[in-house]
Amino acid sequence: MDDSATKATGNWWQRLAGGLKRSSSALGSAIAHVVAKRQLDAATIDEIEDELIRADLGAETAARIATELRYGRFDTAITPDEIKAAVAAEVEKVLASVAQPLAIDAATKPFVILVAGVNGSGKTTTIGKLAAKLRAEGRTVMLAAGDTFRAAAIDQLKIWAERSGSAFIAREAGADAAGLVYDAVAAAKQQGIDVLLIDTAGRLQNRTELMNELEKVVRVMKKVEPTAPHAVLLVLDATVGQNALSQVEIFGKVVGVTGLAMTKLDGTARGGILVAIAEKFKVPVHFIGVGEGIDDLAPFSARDFARALVGLDVGLDS
Which CATH class is domain 3-96? Predict the structure, then answer.
């Protein structure tokens, strides 16, 4: 690994570790408190399992980690770091199968990515960061302002298009979103664009009429390109905790979510929710975000996330 790559990896690791500090501190201090008082007996393991559930890792994962501790090191003296390492190893097992990069078929032009999520999840910012990544890879990109409800969302996406050197298509606020998406797919095809990123209005997963509109967007899109969308990226806000589970379930039913991006991991002690989501839905996790900067969206690494979640360091070459 050259110096610049090492530095970039190191900087990202620092951001990830810093971003997950609230999660790791809560988990780490709870484990240390429980273990400091006695050996790893059945009561201690039960307490650790409770702490893992409180950290939003999910009951199944917490139970499996507890079982691993029970049969691996039962009734022996154990250090907090050894507990953390055992937790991280189990978390990594859950996440390894879902840690998949976003695969873009270069033969499909445009490769249409529909981006969905609830209000405030960070969709528009995520699209901007993703556009910058794709442009850095040498791809041509178009951003479509499908969130026609909010003038601010249209303006924000336009700024991201300018920053990333992407093409941009929009209508006035209040226009029909499905019509805008129809025009965007047609324009991207005509211009030979590599990737079309479509923003959509933030919608609560329990608002049936808004979810119906999202279905309409997909139906109309297929009139121009029957195989679209080629990917459906659901952006999740880590700070909502357990509510993210219902978002994945309902958006999955409505538009067939193919991958996840989790944002705002730097603003919550509930980073473990990503583990619960992976355990339950097995949906690929493409990206995680730990800040507002253009470089603060990174491909998801199961090992790095697992170790950062429990507060363990990671070697750059490991």
Answer: mainly alpha
